[in-house]
Fold:
Amino acid sequence: MPSAEYLAGFVDGEGCFHITTTGQPTLTLSQKIIDPLLAIQKVWGGTIYEDKLRWTGEDAARVAENILPYLLLKQDQARWLIRHTRNRPGYGSRTTWYKDWCGFSNTFIKHLRKVA
Structure:
């Protein structure tokens, strides 16, 4: 049974926090071998399509909140998703989300350049 620690490692390596074209915050895992995604889905829910497992909206925030203490690389992205999902019921407009995400992304890139 995949634990929060296992899922956090999977998200750090194969996960992506992003916004859909409809403005929904989303957590997606990609994996060519479907078995790990099926095992994760049994415990954590989500929707599988092709070689991806996806959570959107409040489900994405719930998963991010549970794995946050165990993330090593994507804690800031998880916090961003949680904060914006919980502070913006209905998710707001696509433009607002995009601007917020761009601001976060630019700050994160600057941080990476400093530590590299």
